[in-house]
Amino acid sequence: MVILKSKYEIEAIRKACQVVAECHRTIAPLIKPGITTKEIDRIFEDIMLKHGAKAYQKGYKGYPYAICASPNDVIAHGFPSNKPLENGDIVTIDTVAELDGWLGDSAWSYAVGQISPTAENLMRVTKECLDLGIAQAQVGNRLGDVTSAIQRHAESHGFGVVRDLLAHGIGRDLHEEPTYMHVGKPGKGLRIKEGMVFTIEPMITEGTYFMTMDPDGWTARTMDNKLAAQYEHTIAITAEGPQILTVQ
Fold first, then answer.
1. Smallest Cα–Cα separation from 187: which of 239, 136, 152, 237?
2. Do residues 30 and 42 make contact, with C-beta atoms less than 8 angstroms apart?
3. What is the pTM of this model?
4. How many other C-beta atoms lie within 10 A of the C-beta of residue 106?
5. Nearest 5°: CA angle at 205, between 170 and 241?
6. Which of 123, 145, 234, 248 is 20 to 30 A from 29 via CA?
7. Which residue, 152, 146, 165, 149, is CA-closest to 212?
8. Which residues of 122-182 form beta strands (DSSP E)?
9. Longest C-alpha distance within the chain, in Å?
């Protein structure tokens, strides 16, 4: 069941989302060759604590960190490590903050130093997919309008769209309805209604969209070990259009 949120509840979610946005604003200029993802993990958790929030995913189903750190061929849910990021890497940082019982969720891909033209193009197209999806998240549209816009754009550039990891509703729980893939057909799927709050988070791959799981049970990688990128916002559906709650 989709839980529609009141304007008051959306504002409460926005506060949690803005903690996440501050985390990303803070880290963006610091991601350079030599920084470790464990350092990023500590920075994010410190910012959340400063705002009276907590890292919701730390301890979620046993996950041990405040962030997911997913470099290069890791699609999502990678563990932070003490290995320094290197020139030419790309890395996706994903986190969820809980504030006063409400959740905010956002992932962002970052370039480390000078990256390849392929990586640069993948990141650009992935961000464009997010923007195109958000533009379709209008009252009266269907989720297929969102997902088909994402799929068409990614595939028109020869990229893949991950099917096995889903976007989701969010509020007091991390994974509320609707849950959905970022592929589909226009005019199909759940009708979008005012008061819905959900993530749009396309995971786009350089090659195949099929993935494998590491033995840790969390880390999802591209099956062909080519690059993956992801951008994610939490959005609220209003009569005036979609509101990006995690805007940076």
1. 136
2. no
3. 0.97
4. 25
5. 40
6. 234
7. 165
8. 160-161, 167-169, 176-180
9. 47
